[in-house]
Amino acid sequence: MDFPVFSVPWAVDLIGKKSAIHRDRTFPWTEYIAVKGDLLNVKRVIRQGGIWLYQVTGKVYPCKKCYIDSRVVKLSLRSEKKSVKPPSLKRIIENLKLSAGSRYCWGCNVRKGIRDISFFYPEVKNSPGNWIWTFTGLDCSGLLFEATNGFTPRNTSKLMKFGKNIQIEGKSVEQISQIVKPLDLILWPGHVVIVLDVNNVIESLNYELKKYTGKVVISSFRRRLGEIMKYRKGIDNFNLSAYPPGKKFEIRRWHPEILQKGLNR
Predict the structure, then answer these.
(1) Quick one: 263 exposed, middle or buried, by C-beta within 10 A (0-12, 13-18, 19+)?
(2) Any idea what the Cα angle at residue 249 is, between residues 245 and 253, rounded to 5°?
(3) CATH number at residue 229
């Protein structure tokens, strides 16, 4: 079954407790949701509050020390490889649109959540913020990760090295709108906005209009890019630019169908 992977072992002691939910409606010790079939490398076994945990690493999420409940893991001595192919451009866009309106959930990449988690943690059933404890919703990179069936990297730091960067430096909103393609990624450390088409983008936002609205929203491409460019400068290559990280963004292209079209021209 799908199950959360945590950044600290004592996160399991906090599940179901109202005091563990931050004021921004997040449980920040969730790294990501490991889905059925994910391959994890077990480094050690530890006991936390009566529960045996595995300290794990994996290729899906780049954490050196992550923890998962041992009760949901099937151990194997064989080294297997999980092959993931990207869905079609059309299918990914359809998946993204189906996610509109889903809750924002820190570290989450399964919008329908983990309904059976109360089998392992009974305190979840009657806990305030139950949707947080069933890990229902998506964060910004989790939105894309689920829509691509796990083909894309699971966090923004990896997404910023994924695909190829688009030349946008010095261009206006209108000029950029003429060169973007579906599924291009507007990126900076900690957030990603996904282009649906020349008119719309989609993203999972926790904070909007001075409120923790916490949902996946579709908005106007030009309006949203204009908002971003009030505070950030479009850069051709984020890592090579001397501009402060908090004041710049880049756009990356990654889907094979779009990249192949560019090569064939």
Answers:
(1) exposed
(2) 135
(3) 3.90.1720
Q: Look up the pTM and report it.
A: 0.94
195-208 burial by CB neighbour count: b if 16+ within 10 A, else e?
bbeeebbbbbbbee
What pLDDT is recorded for position 264?
A: 44
Residue 197 pLDDT greater than 90, yes or no: yes
Contact of 194 with 162, CB cutoff 8 Å:
no
90 class by beta-carbon count within 10 Å (0-12 exposed, 13-18 middle, 19+ buried): exposed
The set of residues, in sequence order, having a beta carbon less than 8 Å from that of 133 and lying 6+ positions away, is: 15, 16, 27, 117, 121, 124, 127
Domain shared by 52 and 164, yes or no: no
Q: Which domain holds residue 114?
A: 3-74+105-138
Q: Report if residue 97 sits inside a domain.
A: no
